[in-house]
Design brief:
Blueprint (H helix, E strand, L loop, with lengths): L2 H13 L2 H10 L6 H8 L3 H13 L3 E5 L7 E5 L1 H15 L1 H8 L12 E6 L5 H12 L5 E6 L7 H9 L20 E6 L2 H6 L6 E6 L11 H36 L1
Helix pairs in contact: 1-5, 2-4, 3-4, 5-6, 7-8, 7-10, 8-10
Length: 258
């Protein structure tokens, strides 16, 4: 058996467990700490910890220390690695499977635009970049907003970093999340650990999720800070592309059902 077959078999094997698959499905939408993940998938913490260890060994799940709870880890699904392994395994069975996975569905019905709100503490860097990226990637088909609990000013390096990705956020402003209370959102996303702890309840939101992304503005060295902004923007861009596909597909399906 060649290496490609062995790798595909290992991929299917690691997903061939209900707990591990539930962990993957949850982490595909939101970063979680162990206890939160245990509660979300209704499995004991020790069972979830074992599943996480297996998924990390397989290179599908990664982790970082919480900014608020240093002794705890936030786990996230490596979406790019997941897609790569998924497509490779699909092509091995039949080339058309990979085409079906990546194919673009035609828009056949009109529907209300999805609305997404990104939250972080100061609404100066991560959430501002996320707002700009989603608006640019979706060409306005998804309404993107951002806010914070202690709004300040849009960080100059956020603007500079977005310029490098051909995304203009110069007209964006820092806003308090109170401006959006009572509004409907399809998804509310906290992009920093502190915002998750202080985020108000948005009862009109269909879903609230968390992305644990390091604060690039907290890096003291100037050169390292620029690299940190680029890294944060790259992480956000990857996650937002997947979010965009998910939201557009969900709204298409909902519109067809109506």
């Amino acid at each position: 058996m060649d290496a490609t077959l062995n790798d595909a078999a290992a991929f299917f094997r690691v997903l061939g467990d209900a707990t591990r698959l539930a962990v993957v499905a949850r982490l595909a939408r939101s970063d979680e700490r162990l206890i939160g993940l245990s509660t979300a998938i209704k499995q004991p913490p020790e069972t979830v910890a074992a599943a996480l260890a297996d998924l990390q060994s397989a290179g599908l799940v990664a982790s970082r220390a919480s900014d608020v709870h240093p002794g705890e880890m936030y786990y996230h699904l490596d979406l790019e690695q997941m897609q790569k392994r998924y497509l490779t395994a699909g092509r091995l069975i039949h080339p058309a499977l990979a085409q079906a996975i990546t194919g673009v569905e035609e828009e056949t019905v009109q529907r209300a635009k999805p609305r997404v709100l990104f939250l972080c503490t100061h609404n100066s860097a991560r959430s501002q970049m996320a707002e700009g990226l989603l608006r640019a990637f979706s060409h306005g088909a998804i309404e993107a907003f951002s806010a914070g609990s202690q709004p300040g000013e849009v960080h100059p390096l956020a603007i500079e970093t977005m310029d490098g990705m051909s995304v203009d956020i110069r007209n964006q402003r820092s806003k308090h999340f109170n401006e959006f209370l009572g509004q409907h959102f399809d998804v509310v996303i906290t992009v920093c650990d502190r915002a998750r702890e202080t985020c108000p309840v948005f009862p009109e939101a269909k879903e609230t999720i968390h992305w644990s992304i390091p604060d690039p503005a907290a890096v003291e060295d100037e050169a390292e800070r620029r690299r940190a902004f680029h890294q944060a923007a790259t992480i956000l861009a990857t996650r937002i592309r997947y979010l965009q596909i998910l939201l557009e597909r969900e709204h298409r399906e909902q519109a067809v059902m109506q």
